[in-house]
Amino acid sequence: MLDPCVTVQNVTMSYQRHPVVHHVSVDFPCGFTNAIIGPNGAGKSTLLKIMMGMLVPDEGKVCFNHDETVGYLPQQSDIDRSLPITVEDLVATGFLASGSIFSKIPEDTMTKVKEALATVGLTGFENRTIDNLSNGQFQRALFARIIVQDADVILLDEPFNAVDAKTNLDLCRVITNWRTEGKTVIAVIHDFHVAKEYFDYTLMMACEKVAFGRTQDVLTEQNFEKAYSASLYWDDGAEVCSVSE
Questions:
Q1: Which family does it belong to (predicted)?
Q2: Is 51 within 8 Å of 94 (Cβ atoms)?
């Protein structure tokens, strides 16, 4: 039996009193890569933010079962790239959880920053400001920041959105390395081909849970039809779902 790393228990989240995540329960296993897939507006990113503690659900809860440290990569659109900081500075902020923003960054820490940049193919970009990066380069820098955090559980919100094919492949290899290191990865993605190739388990959502299990068992024509039909006919004007007090 698989050891559950993150347990989502009967989670419902509403916007304007209508559920976007509707009574979702799932156990994400420790040490595996987990994809969250579904149509646009299916509640995937909302669920990830609930797991991260950025949103409080109307009902249900999320439990990290082994006191894991957690790293989170938001969507690029959620990040202000006008800040006048360098790539090296951005990656070094991954250490803030274990130190003060006012402390001098030790030399061994900067060595880890350079190693992380090499891992994502950004050696030589240390002093470039983040506003001068392409989408692919910026995403590589964000992955380097996650690398230096060295968290047990890594949550990724659409990590392959608007990046080129080479960057996509390189970042998938980073995710594979994390799995080899025994980390648990949970990522919202859109490309089911990437899910089949690099993710062990998949949660398919359409506001509700459509299916969860081994990726090859979940990504079936029947489940896709069910997910997209549920999304197409989801009634935003339906009566408000009752929520337990």
A1: Belongs to the ABC transporter superfamily.
A2: no
